[in-house]
Amino acid sequence: MARWTIKRSHKRKTAGRNWLGLPNDLTLMIFSRLSTVDILASIQQVCRQWWSICMDPLMWRTINMCDLGIRNSVDYKLEKMCRNAIDRSCGQLEDISIEYFGTDDLFKYIIDSGCHKLRRLRLVQCFHQMSDEGFCEMDEKLPLLEELDISLCHYVSSIALEAIGRSCPLLKSFKFNNDGSKKEAFVIVQNMSNLRHLQLVGNNLDNSSLSATLNGCPHLESLDLRMCSELELERILRIRCDEQLKDFRDSDALLDGFQLWGLLDGFQLWGLSYETEYSVAVYKYQCEKRDEKEKR
């Protein structure tokens, strides 16, 4: 009888990657690419080493609390997390983005926490929770701020814009996408003459406001005026915009990424990010406006 030899296949034991063995500098760099909520809610609780790394002020030069997909039920916890992250930065904070849960009190906390190195600030889609009050108390506490986005903060008016202009002399990029008035456009050019980039999607400015913007902001490179329904560009004004600006988008310009007309009907705006939600709303407006022109 033939003897059959059965060879047993031994599975190679593959050792799992030892993340704890990485140098602290490399671990810190990896963590800095994660969301603020992930770090505070889970990452820092893995072990003492990671807890120690998460306490390093260099970890908190950037705080990103946007695109979270969560709403009012956890707003208080988000604000508490945000304050915690600001405290850990120990004045090293350079970039902070907040969506939905920004308030006057939270903004005051940012400017009163010694964040003098802050260069970029986004407080978007905070609706009725942000007002002029917080901005009027800036008092040059953010002297290095270069980029500011306060889109869809409905209670922010020209009073706040004046305060921003006085307090942020280095401001180069400003986004105020809102259903604002012509007055706000004039206030911007009077108080933010060093702007390079300006976005006023949905504003009610007209041709005179646009001319004032071109005159008052001589360094302006890009201007986004999509969904500005009061704007009716004359030929001379159009030529001037094309010559003076590197990137100009008027009220008829389409938004990037939404070229399929029939795609929009199935979109559920609730829960989308600020950029996506606002882009869809603007694009729908563009479609309706073009349909009206074709009927004429």
UniProtKB/TrEMBL annotation:
Recorded hits in SMART domains, A to Z, give:
LRR_CC
What's one Pfam family here? Answer: F-box-like
What residues form the membrane-spanning segments? none
Residue span, F-box domain: 16-63
Entry's InterPro entries?
F-box-like_dom_sf, F-box_dom, Leu-rich_rpt, Leu-rich_rpt_Cys-con_subtyp, LRR_dom_sf
Annotated signal peptide: none
Tell me which PROSITE patterns the record gives: FBOX (PS50181)
Q: What is this protein called?
A: F-box/LRR-repeat protein
Organism field: Arachis hypogaea (Peanut)
